[in-house]
Amino acid sequence: MASPILRIENVSKRYGKKDVLKGASLTVHKGDLKILIGPSGAGKSTLLQCINFLVKPDEGRIWLEDQEVHYAHKRNLYAYRQKVGMIFQDFNLFDHLNALENVRIGMVKVKGMAKAEAGERAVMELERVGLKDHMQKYPAQLSGGQKQRVSIARALAMDPKVMLLDEPTSALDPELIGEVHAVIRDLGNNGMTMIMATHQIGFASSLASEIIFMEDGQILERGTPEKIFFQAENARTKEFCSKITELYGETR
Amino acid sequence: MPESLIAIKDALPYLLRGSLVTLIVVAGAMALGLTIGVPLAVGQVYGRPALRRVIGVYVWFFRGIPLLVLLFLFYFGLCTALDINLSAFTVAIIVLGLISSAYQSQIFRGAILSLPEGQFKAARALGMSDLKAISFIVLPQALRLSIPGWSNEYSILLKDSAVTYALGVAEIMARAHFVATRTYQQLPLYLTAGVIFLVLTYLGTRGLRMLEEKVRIPGYSAHGL
């Protein structure tokens, strides 16, 4: 098997006396879609934020394409973050920039691309997420689903090797979830490597290469969607999956 | 025409030239305050504890000493002691600017802290350095939010600038006082000076209100208005 695109080894994080992440390890190959599930406070979000060092892990090592990330080394860290796209639950579009500028700014200010060239690429990415007609709109003028699609376009414009999605549809009206799922599904079909935390297990099970169940800062169980949803070994995994299935509908 | 009106009419061109001096002092102080105040605010929000403490002392110093004391301290004290030859006009701008930087830094600090944390986070997630994230994402938003506070700062500076008359800066108050003591028309002349200040306050705050409207981010209504 080819070497992994991203490898996370024994990542831990403490806040004061509370261990929010207790030694999580993860190996991600190109094209994988890993889905993190688990109750609130399980450490899913912390794990994702540790992966691109928005939260500094207390322990653990991370490799991207066999290169270890030295986050204390600023240049190394900034270069690494460019290659790891991040999608947030509450979108975090830059409020003072319109959709086009939101997508363009990273290319111009981080990659040093010319404005015109970056603008063309931004238009392309916005077209890809179906927002060609909304390029001039500001975040406050967009719906939640549109905002999340802009944020996906913003991440894609940086040509990421891996995308981290932190409950990308949790803040959306039920009606708007579909449009964001469609974009993510499309990304997966095009071979994008992704790690996503979500409660939408129906969507997750249809796409995931692996489901990872987390609780209390630990990875309790992992496996194919079939295994996790229908033949889980851990009692907590079973309990969580049955509750969440009841809530969000069938896994198929 | 009554004597008082004649006194006003005669003095008006002289006083208006004084208001030009006032405006230059205020504009210079605001610009200096902005230039120093922004880095102070950034340092106080994002800086290391030691830096934050130093800035805290700076802010305490310039907010804690009366303007007149600082003016005398700089003009008669420091300039003499260090043998620096600065005009009263220059010292007025510097001292008002330093004081304003302390106040402005707190306006900007409040604005930065009011931004959602996610803005900075998203910028870093794109690979921006902290400096880039602050320059391109945080400050453009924080400065917009600072305009109402800035308008306050303008009106305070405008009025404070009258105190520089004590150094002999030929601003509105100094000129009104000069004419009043010569002509014995105190009431009409100080009244005129007051009216000029009122007009300048109105024009300035009005202008800043227009700026606020002009740079408003589309889609953000003023709390449903």
Helices and strands, with pairings:
The complex is a heterodimer of chains A (252) and B (225).
Chain A: E1 6-15, E2 18-28, E3 33-37, H1 44-51, E4 59-64, E5 67-68, H2 74-82, E6 84-87, H3 99-109, H4 115-128, H5 144-156, E7 162-166, H6 174-189, E8 193-197, H7 201-207, E9 210-215, E10 218-223, H8 225-230, H9 235-248
Parallel strand pairs in A: 3-8, 3-9, 6-7, 7-8
Antiparallel strand pairs in A: 1-2, 1-4, 4-5, 9-10
Helix pairs in contact in A: 3-4, 3-5, 4-5, 5-6
Chain B: H1 3-46, H2 49-64, H3 67-81, H4 88-114, H5 117-125, H6 130-160, H7 172-183, H8 186-214
Describe this entry's structure for a reader.
The complex is a heterodimer of chains A (252) and B (225). Chain A is of the alpha/beta class. Chain A has a domain at 6-92 and 162-248: P-loop containing nucleotide triphosphate hydrolases (Rossmann fold, 3-Layer(aba) Sandwich). Chain A contains 9 helices and 10 strands. Chain A has helices at 44-51, 74-82, 99-109, 115-128, 144-156, 174-189, 201-207, 225-230, 235-248; strands at 6-15, 18-28, 33-37, 59-64, 67-68, 84-87, 162-166, 193-197, 210-215, 218-223. In chain A, strands 6-7-8-3-9-10 form a 6-stranded mixed β-sheet, sandwiched between helices. In chain A, a hairpin with a 2-residue loop joins strand 9 and strand 10. Chain A is globular. Chain A starts with 5 loop residues before the first strand and ends with a helix. Chain B has 225 residues and is mainly α. Chain B has one domain (3-214): MetI-like fold (Orthogonal Bundle), CATH 1.10.3720. Helices cover 81% and strands 0% of the residues of chain B. Chain B contains 8 helices and no strands. Chain A binds chain B through residues 52, 54, 74, 78-82, 84-86, 88, 90-96, 98, 105-106, 109-110, 137-141, 151, 154-155, 158, and chain B through 116, 118-119, 121-129, 132, 136-137, 140-141, 144, 217-220.
